[in-house]
Structures are given as structure tokens and as C-alpha cells.
Write a structure and sequence with these properties.
With 345 residues, this protein is of the alpha+beta class. The protein has 18 helices and 7 strands. Among the domains are: 13-104, Orthogonal Bundle (Arc Repressor Mutant, subunit A), CATH 1.10.10; 117-230, Nonspecific Lipid-transfer Protein, Chain A, CATH 3.30.1050. Helix 6 crosses helix 7 (120-127) and helix 7 (120-127) runs parallel beside helix 8. Residues 219-259, 261-277 and 279-314 have low confidence and may be disordered.
């Protein structure tokens, strides 16, 4: 018995469309039938969580509205395929897939999320853009686990076709998890190539064009990898220069500061300047000359000693004074004789 379904009750094309495909699981069933017809068990396996009763209900309703049909109505296991009306959903589903890739790129990875290699072809078809197509005709073959399909570029037109290509320009092989990590922008394509997660055979020159066609920013990220390397190389150079400059700059002030501020050298200048005082010693010859002319004048400096002693409070020593008495006149005066030798009375 067919259950009654709710509708939006609006005279609007989008509302009518959602009345048919707006229920949960419906568009995913269409997605599974876009590449090729599938049997009931294949659909059940590709849609974990749907449940056998719900799948049967959805298939029955889609058959009633004319979106799908049984390949052999007499055999339920024969499978289902899209009708012409159902294939009209191809472009809307691609648009929703492009929209979903943008949304998924900003979401954290779901470790328990279901991944199927059969979804890769639709993902590639949603990712490619004729605006980014290479100028030359090329064919890229993709092998995602057991799924094989190819993208053909002819005169700027891009087609995604099932199965292997006759003469592929480039063959790209990977597993389903890596493929969808790339599609969501969570894995850099260059890193995947270098790390071996993605294997490429064929013309290496075709890799940039393939990545550009998929919008993975691979060709320009290829330039980004050298950019990172270039940053990594200069980084040590500035670091060494920065260390070398401070190392030279610190000793320089250390040497300059002691040279200018050292008081030891400042006193040295007066010491050298005091050297001219040595000529004072030249007075010795002057004293000798004076003593040669007059013996009394040579002893004159001795009077300074008594003066010094007197200043110290001691009686001037008369012993020093008789020194001039050594002259004949002094001796005569001391003996009471006249200068002629006559004794005075």
C-alpha cells in the first residue's frame, strides 16, 4: 500500500521538484544510478543505513513518478536504471555536488564517514571546469581502487566517461580515502605525489594541466612547494647573519669603552708631560758653575736647611755657620789677630 506523501503545496518549479526528490535518500539513489544501472543489492550496499524497507519504498515511488524504471520488470534482481526524465537531474546533482565540496572543505574530517570509490567519477565531474581545460587534446585516466574512468578533453570540451581510455595521456592511481581528501582540499596534491599516496604514469608534463583542470591548485601549489623550500633556505642565512652581527658588535663596544674610559691612560699623559720637569736637574751644573766662581755661593743652598729646621722649631745649628770662617779673614777674626798676622790686644 502506497503511503500518502507530504507536499509543499506551492505553484513553484522548485517546490514541485522537492515534492519528488526532497525526501531523504532520494537524490543519493539517483546519484548511484547516474554512472550505470544497478541491482537492488548493489544499491543497498552503496547506501549504508538506508534499510531494505526504506530502499524498496523509495524505488517504488521513483518508479511511479517516472524517474527510474526496472530493467526487467519480471525480475526484481535485474536492477534499475534512470529514465530520460531522471537523467535531467544530472546537472542539478553536479551543481549540488560542487556546492557540497565547498561546504565539506570547511568541515573537520569524519573518521567514521562512509567512503565509496564509486563516488569518485561524480566528484571528478563536479570538479572539472571547461574554463580551466588545457589548450591541447588530452585524456586523463583515473583508477580509484577498483573504479576506473577517464576524462577526455577535446577542443576545449570536457567529458567524464566510465571505463579505461584507449591511449591515456596520464594515468592517476590512488585509493578512495586519499582521493576524497584531495577533493575536499585537506591534502596537498604535491605532498600526495611526493609521499606516494598518488601514483602517476605517463607524461609528467601533463600533471600541471590535470591538476589545474580539477581545480586542485596543484600547478600553482607546485610552485608553492619551491616557495616553501626557498623560505626554508634563506631562513638559516638571516639567522646566522643575525648571530654574526651581534657577535661582532658586542666586542667592538667592549674594546672601545675601555680604550676611551680607561683612566689609566689619562694619567699617563700628565706623566709624560711631567717629563719636561727633568730639565730641573740641569740646575746641578748651574750650581757647580756657581761654586767654581765663589765657594760661598755654592754653600748658599745649605742655609735653606737651617731655615727648614728653624721652621720645625729647632735652634739653628751654629755648626753650619762656621763654614764661611774658613776664609782667611774669618780665621783672623776668630783668633783675634789682624789680617796681617798681628795679634790684637
Amino acid at each position: 500500500m502506497t503511503r500518502e506523501r507530504r507536499t509543499y503545496e506551492q505553484e513553484c518549479g522548485l517546490a514541485y521538484a522537492l515534492d519528488v526528490v526532497g525526501e531523504r535518500w532520494t537524490l543519493l539513489i539517483i546519484r548511484e544510478l547516474l554512472p550505470r544501472p544497478k541491482r537492488y543489492n548493489e544499491l543497498l550496499d552503496a547506501l549504508p543505513g538506508i534499510g531494505t524497507n526504506l530502499l524498496a519504498d523509495r524505488l517504488s515511488f521513483l518508479s511511479q513518478v517516472g524517474l527510474i524504471q526496472a530493467i526487467d520488470p519480471g525480475r526484481r534482481t535485474a536492477g534499475y536504471e534512470l529514465t530520460e526524465l531522471g537523467r535531467m537531474l544530472h546537472e542539478p546533482i553536479l551543481g549540488l555536488a560542487r556546492f557540497g565540496l565547498r561546504i565539506g572543505a570547511g568541515q573537520p574530517e569524519r573518521p567514521d564517514a562512509v567512503i565509496r570509490a564509486s563516488w569518485a567519477a561524480l566528484a571528478i565531474e563536479a570538479m572539472v571546469s571547461e574554463e580551466r581545460a588545457p589548450a591541447t587534446d588530452v585524456t586523463y585516466q583515473f583508477e580509484v581502487d577498483s573504479e576506473v574512468f577517464h576524462v577526455r578533453v577535446t577542443d576545449g570540451r570536457v567529458q567524464t566517461l566510465p571505463g579505461p581510455a584507449d591511449e591515456p595521456t596520464l594515468v592517476v592511481a590512488t585509493d578512495a580515502p586519499t582521493f576524497f581528501q584531495l577533493g575536499m582540499g585537506r591534502l596537498d596534491p604535491i605532498e600526495a605525489l611526493v609521499g606516494g599516496a598518488v601514483r602517476v604514469t605517463g607524461a609528467a608534463s601533463a600533471v600541471p594541466g590535470c591538476l589545474r583542470l580539477l581545480g586542485l591548485r596543484g600547478p600553482d601549489p607546485g610552485a608553492a612547494v619551491p616557495a616553501k623550500t626557498a623560505q626554508a633556505k634563506p631562513a638559516p642565512a638571516p639567522a646566522k647573519t643575525a648571530q654574526a652581527k651581534p657577535a661582532q658588535a658586542k666586542p667592538a663596544p667592549a674594546k672601545t669603552a675601555p680604550a676611551r674610559a680607561a683612566p689609566a691612560k689619562a694619567p699617563g699623559v700628565p706623566a709624560k708631560a711631567a717629563a719636561p720637569a727633568r730639565p730641573a736637574k740641569s740646575t746641578a751644573p748651574a750650581k757647580s758653575a756657581a761654586s767654581a766662581k765663589d765657594g760661598a755661593s755654592a754653600k748658599a743652598p745649605a742655609t735653606k736647611a737651617p731655615a727648614t729646621k728653624a721652621a720645625s722649631g729647632k735652634n739653628p745649628a751654629p755648626i753650619k755657620i762656621p763654614a764661611p770662617a774658613r776664609t782667611p779673614a774669618a780665621k783672623a777674626a776668630a783668633s783675634g789677630r789682624s789680617p796681617g798676622g798681628t795679634r790684637r790686644r
